[in-house]
Design a protein that fits this description.
This is Zincin. Its cofactor is Zn(2+). Keywords: Disulfide bond, Metal-binding, Repeat, Signal, Zinc. With about 525 residues, the chain is an alpha+beta fold. Among the domains are: about 35 residues, no CATH class; about 130 residues, no CATH class. It is built from six helices and 19 strands. A five-stranded mixed beta sheet has the order 8-7-9-11-10. A four-stranded antiparallel beta sheet has the order 3-4-5-6. Strands 14-15-18-17 form a four-stranded antiparallel beta sheet, with no helix packed on it. Strand 10 and strand 11 form a beta hairpin. Helix 4 crosses helix 5. The protein is globular and about 80 Å long. The N terminus is likely disordered.
């Protein structure tokens, strides 16, 4: 049976089969590699050092040794990460005398390569890829969107031509799949064979890269959790023995450490050995039964991972903080995330659906939680002013109680102010809103406690990315420091759903003042809503 399968494989496919505990399983096999040093500035902007951006000499620590192979005209490093074309990686080499790409930084800020508002438009290269890879790929997409419903993957018609900002899905006859880290101008994933047992893991892992996540096993603190024996890393017939520390050699570069502690979005939280972004123990191993990475007791390695962990989802949520309202599956009911229930997993049929939007017959009225998305107004039922259906028998006064209650039709609190009438409705008088911002370097003047984000639906500026308008947004739950919160010329809120958690401020203003502790999902009722300025 094994010889038959091997005979059916294309001659260039580097895939081997090993027998472990009586079962025949495939494993990733290293390809012929080229090792070189490249300019690899992780984030010069954090230190205001823009020399790498100006084609000048890069500061110390902004180069790195990598090894790559070419898959369908793309240079792949770290085993499954697309760097760019082979021409681009050679131009990025420190040995390139023209220095044509010295300014290029493959990993700038994690947030600088995100998909605007978490919307990913994708296309299959052709109908064969759509039918062969599509079902498994879309299952993997659902594993991410169940946990993070703000993510939107929108399928475009098949097209063999790469188009700007549309994720090209291509097929490769490998066991592993490949992707860029985050969004690039011409994004791409290359999906391995869908018939192999590890496909579910690799497809989900690849989407994690596409969203902006990096390898867990290359974290700076890995060696506190696992031991690495570089002698057990498989080498190719034409490459020298692997070296796993920088300057690494060959397949050893797949296990070298990245120190991105200056940008916590890459590696937020503690080390997660169950992360979908962690290599399996046998990946690129000489012997599956004796892998190079071994967990330190009592840590246990789970090699049957196909779902993102809550840690994975929280990291994506941190990167896309403007639109993320919570993580389904973390056991925390987040009404702002559209959750009806959250039982701590993403499995259907156990009382709460995989996407937390259906209770599957589980508790609703009477569970002690006022779920306004289900029409509830009060809990528990049949107590005081709350009827058997969790509705008020007599609706109590609400306008004027200093609690903004959108479910009851309120737009503002308290009433009787220049921006809020007696019925708690916003008075839309002409006003001067805070100034806009420009996200392009070096014109981004937003303070580090804010983020220059695009405003969908606003009048755009063709001179800015995507022709959008941008404003400085405080992180959720905070407003500007040292100014009157009702001063709409300094800070405002907008009523559009995707912005209700945020306060927008003048460029340069800091946002470290906590908003009022409103009991609804959208705080900061003291800051006026001014949709028209």
């Amino acid at each position: 049976m094994v010889s038959c399968l091997l005979g059916a494989l294309p001659p260039l496919l580097l895939l081997s089969l090993q027998t472990v505990n009586g079962a025949t399983v495939p494993r990733a096999e290293p390809k012929d590699l080229t090792t070189l040093e490249v300019h690899f500035a992780p984030n010069p902007l954090l230190t205001n050092d823009t020399s790498c951006l100006n084609d000048d000499q890069c500061p110390e620590g902004t180069t790195r040794t990598v090894s790559y192979f070419v898959s369908r005209d793309k240079a792949v490093i770290d085993g499954d990460v697309i760097f760019g074309t082979e021409t681009e990686i050679l131009e990025a080499s420190t040995g390139n005398s023209t220095n044509a790409k010295r300014a290029y930084s493959i990993w700038p800020l994690a947030t600088s390569r995100k998909w605007p508002f978490g919307v990913i438009r994708y296309q299959y290269e052709d109908a064969t890829t759509a039918s062969g890879r599509g079902p498994k790929f879309e299952e993997a997409i659902k594993r991410w969107t169940n946990m993070l419903p703000f993510l939107q993957f929108i399928l475009e018609p098949d097209n063999s031509v790469n188009q700007p900002d549309i994720l090209m899905v291509r097929a490769v006859e490998d066991s592993v799949s490949y992707s860029y880290i985050g969004r690039v101008t011409f994004p791409e994933v290359q999906l391995g064979r869908p018939d192999l047992p590890e496909t579910d893991y690799w497809y989900t892992h690849t989407i994690g890269h596409t969203l902006g996540l990096m390898h867990e096993h290359q974290r700076p603190d890995r060696d506190s959790y696992l031991t690495l024996d570089c002698d057990k890393v498989a080498a190719t017939a034409t490459s020298p023995p692997p070296v796993c520390i920088d300057p690494c050699v060959g397949t050893g570069c797949y296990f070298s450490i990245y120190d991105f502690t200056t940008d916590p979005n890459y590696y937020a939280g503690t080390y997660d050995i169950k992360s979908i972004m962690h290599f399996n123990p046998g990946d690129f191993a000489k012997d599956l039964a004796d892998p190079p990475l071994k967990p330190i007791d009592p840590i246990v390695f789970d090699s049957n991972r196909v779902y993102p962990t809550v840690t994975d989802a929280n990291r994506v949520c941190d990167i896309y903080w403007e639109v993320c309202r919570g993580v389904c599956g973390d056991g925390i009911l987040a009404l702002a995330n559209g959750e009806v229930c959250d039982d701590g997993n993403n499995v259907d049929g156990d009382g709460c659906s995989a996407d937390c939007h259906t209770a599957d017959g589980g508790p609703r009225c009477g569970d002690g939680v006022v779920q306004t998305t289900l029409g509830e107004q009060c809990e528990p039922p049949n107590v005081g002013n709350c009827d058997a259906n969790c509705h008020f028998v007599i609706e109590p006064p609400h306008c004027g109680n200093n609690v903004l209650e959108p479910a009851l039709g309120e737009q503002c609190e308290p009433p009787g102010t220049p921006t809020c009438d007696a019925n708690c409705q916003t008075i839309n008088t002409p006003a001067t809103c805070p100034a806009h911002c420009n996200p392009n370097v070096p014109n981004n003047l937003c303070d580090e406690s804010t983020s220059c984000i695009p405003l969908f639906g606003a009048s755009g500026d063709p001179g800015l990315p995507f022709g959008m308008s941008y404003m400085c947004a405080c992180r959720a739950g905070f407003r500007a420091d040292g100014v009157d919160p009702s001063d709409g010329s300094k800070q405002v809120r907008f009523s559009a759903t995707q912005y209700t958690s945020y306060v927008f401020v003048e460029p340069g203003m800091t946002c470290n003042t906590e908003c009022s502790p409103d009991t609804n999902p959208f705080p900061c009722s003291e800051v006026p809503i001014l949709d028209e300025c």
